[in-house]
Amino acid sequence: MKSRILLVISIIIFFLSIIFSLGTGAVSIPFTTVLNRLINPGNDVNSLIIWQLRMPRILLAALVGASLTVSGAVMQGLFRNPLADPYVTGTASGAALGATLSMFLGLFYLSIFFLPLFAFIGAFATTLVVLFISGISGSAKSENMLLAGIGVSIFLSAFVSLLLYLLGKDLLTVFYWLMGSFSGASWVYVYIMLIVSVPTIAIIGVMAMDLDPMMLGEDHAYSLGIDVKKIRIIFFVLSSLITGLSVAFSGIIGFVGLVIPHIVRILIGPKNRHLIASSIFIGASYMVIADTISRSFSIIMELPVGIVTSMIGVPVFLFLLVKQRNYWR
Q1: Looking at CB atoms within 10 Å, which of 11, 208, 248, 260 has the fewest?
Q2: How many CB atoms lie within 10 A of CB 45?
Q3: Rg for the chain (alpha carbons), in Å?
């Protein structure tokens, strides 16, 4: 019952956050005008701001927020570790290396799509490397994946630092991207995220029931006839896929996949199907509001959204860590 109530509330908050974000910014648009232009788009300035400038950015932020939150919920269940999140697996470092490499090679100036393309390739390639390393021993255990992800992440971060050092004049461009931003959002990015993330999240939601027994231990899952190795790899690849794409289009945005699943799990319990359903909308709302704060911070220059999520997420996470330190046991 609690899970259904939270799901309904989270959906309402999600739509309210979109309406609020559409009306907030350098140009303020009244609530009634926003509703009117959503129903009856026109050729006036308000319609242009809503449909061409803010709507694609808001929808991209919502999709990225949902993807990172679902990935965080999966990673925490998969590794049976409340400190796990999408970036622990090395996905973010791989995406960062790919994006930095596109700048270093000068491909970014040929087309704006090279940066997200290289970021996505780097993220997905890192996932495959982590799977290979963790499976060398013959068993892709959760502990092996976690340690392999951390090791690969540190290794790739060193290469990112090297490329940043060599970039020179382009350093600020890449550095700003690494801090997270939706300033380059477009309808094309939204369509790509929709095509990839929505089906992926749906598959994760359907398979979520298999994740519950795995949280109680591998032996328990095996006793129920679950192919633990196969399920673990599927979850790992799917989570890394939507994380890599999110990082490709928005840069590195931390503490979303770490904090939101914590909060939802405390509110409704650890059942992953209910957890993921509510996390989708809460994570999306959180990212939309965080991006609204970032672009409303200053008329001259917007604040990277990664800074906003970190400033909000770190205190919340520390509070949850102290207050609920035994809830995972």
Answers
A1: 11
A2: 10
A3: 20
Q: Find the length of the chain.
A: 329
Residue 106 one-letter amino acid: G
Q: Residue 328 pLDDT > 50, yes or no? A: no
Burial 292-324 (b: 16+ CB within 10 A, else e): bbbbeeeeeebbbbbbbbbebbeeebeebeeee
Q: Which CATH class is domain 2-323?
A: mainly alpha
Which amino acid appears at position 247 of this protein? V
Distance CA(247)–CA(252), nearest Å, equals 6
From the list 245, 206, 204, the residue with the least C-alpha distance to 63 is 245
Match 């308000």 to its residue by tokens. Answer: 46
Token duo for residue 155: 């290794």
Identify the CA nearest to 70 among candidates 178, 159, 193. Answer: 193
SS3 per-residue string spanning the chain: CHHHHHHHHHHHHHHHHHHHHHHCCCCCCCHHHHHHHHHCCCCCHHHHHHHHHHHHHHHHHHHHHHHHHHHHHHHHHHCCCCCCCHHHHCHHHHHHHHHHHHHHCCHHHCCCCHHHHHHHHHHHHHHHHHHHHHHCCCCCCHHHHHHHHHHHHHHHHHHHHHHHHHHHHHHHHHHHHHCCCCCCCCHHHHHHHHHHHHHHHHHHHHHHHHHHHHHCCHHHHHHCCCCHHHHHHHHHHHHHHHHHHHHHHHCCCCCHHHHHHHHHHHHHCCCHHHHHHHHHHHHHHHHHHHHHHHHHCCCCCCCCHHHHHHHHHHHHHHHHHHHCCCCCC
User: Tokens 């290469």 belong to which residue?
Assistant: 159
Could you read off the pLDDT of 78-109 as tens digits, one per residue?
A: 877 777 777 777 888 888 898 888 878 888 77
Find tokens 């790899």 and name the residue: 233
The residues, ordered by sequence, that sit 6+ positions from 72 with a Cβ below 8 Å of its Cβ are: 84, 85, 86, 256, 257, 258, 260, 261, 279
CA 238 remoteness from chain centre: 13
User: Tell me: the pLDDT tens digits for 159-208?
Assistant: 888 888 887 666 777 777 788 989 889 999 999 999 999 999 999 999 98
